[in-house]
Amino acid sequence: MGLGKGRVKGSSGRQPAPGRMPAGAAAAPCRGRSWARRSAGWRSSMSPSTALLLLVVAAAAGAAAGARILAVLPHAGRSHHLVFEPLLLELQRRGHDLTVLSHFPSGGYTRELDLRGTMPVLDSVLPLGVLQSLNPFTDYMTIARIGHDSCEPILTLPAVRALLASNETFDLVLDEAFNTDCFLGFAHRFGAPLVSLSSSVLMPWAGARVGNPLNPALQPNLFLWFTDAMTLWERVLNAAYTALVNVVKALHWDRLAQRVADRNFGPGLPPLRQLARNASLLLVNAHFSVNLPLAEVPGVVEVGGLHIPDYARTLPKVNVCLFDPR
Q: Which sign, positive or negative, has the C-alpha torsion 44, 47, 50, 52?
C-alpha cells in the first residue's frame, strides 16, 4: 500500500503538529545569535560616557526620594529654636530637602530664609526675677502681642514674598503651634500636609488642632499655677480662665491674624481656624515622666528630650553633697 502524500514513514498517518519537528529529523542549525550573545554584544558596545550618564541618572533618582520640607519658625526666642533645630538637622542629614525660615540660621540646610531684623531676638533677656511676678492674665496678652507683631514684618520680607510668588512645591510644612496662626497660610499656599511643633507643653488652644482640646476639669492651664490635684474651686477657676483665653483669642487675636494673612497670602485663603484643624500631627516637647500624664489622641506625640544629643545620654558622675556636714 502506497504512502499518502505528506505522510511520514512509520507514522500513524497523521500530519505533524505545526511547528513540531518530525521524529528522526535533524534539527536545522540556528542562524541567529543567541540572546546571551546578543546581550553580551550590547553590553560590550556601551560607551563609558553612556554608562556614566546612567549612573548620574540613578544617583539623581535616589536623591529625589527625599521629601521637600518647609519649616516656618517665626518666633524669635532661642529657647524655642534649640528644641526644633536637632529635628531639622536630622531630617536634612537623612537626605531630605529643607527650606527653613527662622531667626537663627545655622548653615546646615538646603536653603535658609533669614528672619533676623524683623523682630528683636529673645536670647537671655528674661531675668529670673520676672518669673516670680508672673500674672496669668498679662502673660497671655504679652505672648499674643509678640506673635501678632511678628506677622506683618515676616510675611512682607522680600525673601518670603519671593517664596510665596514662586512655583516651588513642598511635600510637608512644619510650623510652631505657639502664639499666632497667621503663618498657617504656607500649608494652604503650597498644598502640603501640616505638622505642628510645640517647644513646651501645649498651649491651651493648641490641642484643638488635632481634636485634643484641654479638659479644664483634669488638666491645669499652662498659665496657671495649679497641679493635676485641683480642688473644686481650682477646677472652676481653671475652667473659667481657659474659656476666657479661648474667647479672647478667637474674637481678637485670631481676627487680627486673619486680616494679615488675607493681605499676604491673597484671596481664597480659608479661615485660619480651619487651616489649624487640618494639622496631621502635633509634636510636643513634653513627657509624662516629667510632666503630667495626660489622655491624648494619637495625633499628639510627646517627644520630650528630642533635642538632647546622643552623646549626652550617658550622665557624668558627679559628687553632690546633699547635706551640710556642719
A: positive
pLDDT of 185: 97
Give SS3 for 148: helix
φ, ψ of residue 225 to 5 degrees: the values are -105, 15
Whole-number pLDDT of residue 320 = 60
pTM comes to: 0.74
The owner of cell 499655677 is 225
**Is 145 strand, coil or helix?**
helix
User: What does the block give as the cell for 126?
Assistant: 528674661
In sequence order, the 6+-apart residues with CB closer than 8 A to the CB of 70 are 98, 99, 101, 170, 172, 173, 174, 186, 190, 192
Instruction: Write out pLDDT tens, residues 260-294.
Output: 999 999 989 999 999 999 999 999 999 888 888 88
Burial 23-51 (b: 16+ CB within 10 A, else e): eeeeeeeeeeeeeeeeeeeeeeeeeeeee
Residues with Cβ within 8 Å of residue 194, at least 6 apart in sequence = 173, 175, 184, 187, 275, 278, 279, 280
Q: pLDDT digit string (tens) for 156-178?
A: 999 999 999 999 999 999 999 99
pLDDT at 138: 84
101-146 pLDDT tens trace: 999 998 889 999 999 999 988 776 665 555 555 688 888 898 999 9
Dig out the grid coordinates for 23 from the structure. Answer: 521524529
User: Rounded to whole angstroms, how far apart are CA atoms 101 and 99?
Assistant: 7
Q: Are 13 and 7 in contact (CB under 8 A)?
A: yes
Q: Exposed, middle or buried, 151 (CB in 10 Å: 0-12/13-18/19+)?
A: buried
